[in-house]
Specification:
Layout: E1 10-18, E2 23-31, E3 39-43, E4 47-50, E5 55-57, H1 70-77, E6 86-89, E7 94-103, E8 110-116, H2 119-125, E9 128-131, E10 136-138, E11 142-145, H3 147-151, E12 154-155, H4 159-164
Parallel strand pairs: 6-11
Antiparallel strand pairs: 1-2, 2-3, 4-5, 6-7, 7-8, 8-9, 9-12, 10-11
Length: 167
């Protein structure tokens, strides 16, 4: 917390995403105190600062129960677990698997997926980056992307090629 500098111990259990607009709605958190094990959410809009080791909110009142905001409740009750999703094109060909997500800090919008194109490709070339531009459909177990996104896949030029200085 910022103003009164009270340190609260919550663990982030998961991220709550919206299927509409590809954005992060809230952080699903759980108190580490023995007296309060209730699952709560912190709406993304209430986060003032976020770093690798902490986040800052205005007050304890920013930590809510999921049902207090209908959009968050719906996403919380029907979660999207994007990490591990398979990415396909519209013809049904497997493009890769989501290994991580890049989120725009100011808006919570998902701007790119870090994807694996297979163990061999990851080892040799490293992961790839798939920017999210327009044509993306989320389904229960997969994501389908359009041709524009597929053409925009960026290789990070990592892996063994970078390590060995081959490219």
């Amino acid at each position: 917390l910022k103003d009164d500098k009270i340190k609260m111990n919550f663990l982030v259990k998961d991220l709550v995403f919206s299927k509409k607009g590809f954005k992060l709605l809230a952080l699903h958190v759980k108190s580490t105190s023995r007296s309060n094990k209730t699952n709560r959410v912190i709406p993304f809009k209430k986060i003032q600062t976020i770093t690798s080791c902490k986040l800052i909110i205005s007050s304890e009142n920013d930590i809510l129960l999921p049902h207090q905001i209908p959009e968050i409740e719906d996403a919380y009750n029907n979660p999207i677990k994007m990490i591990g999703f398979h990415i396909y094109n519209y013809e049904g060909c497997l493009v890769g698997v989501i290994k991580d997500i890049i989120i725009q800090k100011s808006t919570g919008k998902i701007i790119a997926f870090i994807i694996s194109e297979g163990m061999y490709d990851d080892l040799v070339d490293g992961y790839s980056l798939l920017p999210i531009i327009h044509y993306v459909d989320i389904h229960d177990d997969r994501i389908i992307v359009g041709d524009i996104e597929l053409k925009s896949i960026l290789s990070q030029k990592g892996g063994l090629k970078k390590f060995l200085g081959i490219e």
